[in-house]
Amino acid sequence: MKKLLRLISLPLLLTAFTASAWDYAGHRTVNQLALQSLPADFPAFAKTPAARERIAFLAGEPDRWRNTQDHTLGHVNEPDHFFDLDYLAGFGLTAETISPFRYEFIGQLAAARAKKPDIEPIRDPAKDANFVRQFFGFLPWAINEHYSKLKSEFSYLKTFEAHGGTADEIRSAQENILYTMGVMGHYVGDLTQPLHTTKHFNGWLGDNPKDYTTWPRFHSWIDGGYLDKVGMKAEELYPKVRRAKPVADANSGNLGIFKPVMNVLVAQNRMVEPLYILNQRHKLSAEEDTAREGKAFLTEQLLKGGQFLGDIWLTAWQTAPEDKFLQSSLAKRKLKAGK
Ligand SMILES: [Zn+2]
Ligand SMILES: [Zn+2]
Predict the structure, then answer these.
(1) What distance in angstroms lies between residue 188's CA and the mean position of ligand 2's atoms?
(2) Cα gap 58→186, rounded to integer Å
(3) What is the pLDDT of residues 61-80, one digit of tens each?
(4) In degrees, to the nearest 5, what angle opens at C-alpha 98 toward C-alphas 26 and 250?
(5) How far is the CA of 155 from the centre of ligand 1 (A)?
(6) Which of 30-34, 265-269, 287-291 has the weakest average pLDDT?
(7) Predicted pLDDT of residue 58
(8) Of 75, 105, 191, the residue nearest 140 (C-alpha)
(9) How far is the CA of 5 from the centre of ligand 1 (A)?
């Protein structure tokens, strides 16, 4: 949805605003699939019916932030939903050479532009009140930063539980965890929508030798229009869910899961052309006889998102160390109370 602004007229835009990223239904599904994947020993407070509903509801939160008129929020929120991998090469960068530090990465882009000012994407001030079009997304950074926040929250929860936290402190920690689990689920859902990993996010851009669609509503059709038409429920996918497992190479170099997330993003970017080919072969047309293949493709993407999200939650919980600073504060508090 993000950059539809560039391409379509206002009346179309207003309709398009009802459908962004996966639609709410798709994002809810991703969070529900992740919940479904959690093993029996995952903390029970996250699995009550109320907690499940809260986590599912929060899947839509970063899209709700888009509905504000405030450009300053748009500035930080909008690019967190995507990363157009195809633009990296123009900056002399690769998935391996980009920095996992968000501001350092912005510096890498600036350094390349200082040498060659016309590297795409180029910002058009008339169409970009949010000041974001010179970038091409921060999705992997957004996911990784949320992962580290979640790990921090599990750290202080474990410490409160083990070293005399009050019932209020433990409950607050648990509520923060549910919030972060839910919100980060949105971004992991975006990660497995292939059109959130490419400059061809909304119809094929530029050279088009294979004659792929340039339809300006292709993105919103994939985000939700098609699945809404053919019908899809999270429960249909539950039998396919495997148990969550630790994310390989998590926490190496204290850099969270940036590398594993980039690996997933690169794999999703490879699904872009197959998606355009499906469309070309009319497998995404929502007609009874042709719809099955498109539905299988897209529900597989939702499933990938849900599984990866469950793996990330599990890893954050399992690898969160105790919070040493909090531990000593709690020890001091105990001493003081004992006097
Ligand atoms: Zn989208
Ligand atoms: Zn999004």
Answers:
(1) 9
(2) 8
(3) 999 999 999 999 999 999 99
(4) 60
(5) 33
(6) 287-291
(7) 98
(8) 191
(9) 13
Which residues 6+ apart lie within 8 Å of 62 measured at CB?
A: 77, 80, 81, 183, 186, 187
Distance 338 CA to ligand 2 centre (A): 50
d(CA 127, CA 123): 8
As given in the structure block, the two tokens for residue 21 are 């990223």
Residue 165 predicted with pLDDT over 50:
yes
What is the rounded distance in angstroms from the CA atom of residue 102 to the CA atom of residue 54? 29
With H, G, I as helix, E, B as strand and everything else as coil, classify residue 137.
strand
Determine the Cα–Cα distance for residues 5 and 57; give it in Å rounded to an integer. 26
Residue 22 CA to ligand 1 center (angstroms) comes to 5
**C-alpha of residue 63 to centroid of ligand 2, in Å:** 6
Distance from Cα 40 to the centre of ligand 1, integer Å: 33
Q: How far is the CA of 175 from the centre of ligand 1 (A)?
A: 28
By residue count, the chain amounts to 339
Q: Which pLDDT score, from 0 to 100, does residue 288 have?
A: 65
Q: Specify the pLDDT at position 17.
A: 37
How far is the centre of ligand 1, averaged over its atoms, from the C-alpha of 239 (Å)?
26
Give the chain's radius of gyration (CA, Å).
Answer: 21
Tell me the one-letter amino acid at 265.
Answer: L
Smallest-distance ligand from the CA of 3: 1
* Nearest ligand atom owner, CA of 196: 1
Q: How far is CA 67 from CA 62, 64, 70, 175, 198, in A?
A: 10, 6, 9, 25, 23
* Distance from the alpha carbon of residue 335 to the mean position of ligand 1, in angstroms: 53
Domains, in order of start, for the chain: 25-60+138-338 (1.10.575)
Residue 210 CA to residue 33 CA, distance in Å, equals 35
Cα-to-centroid distance, 196 and ligand 1 (Å): 6
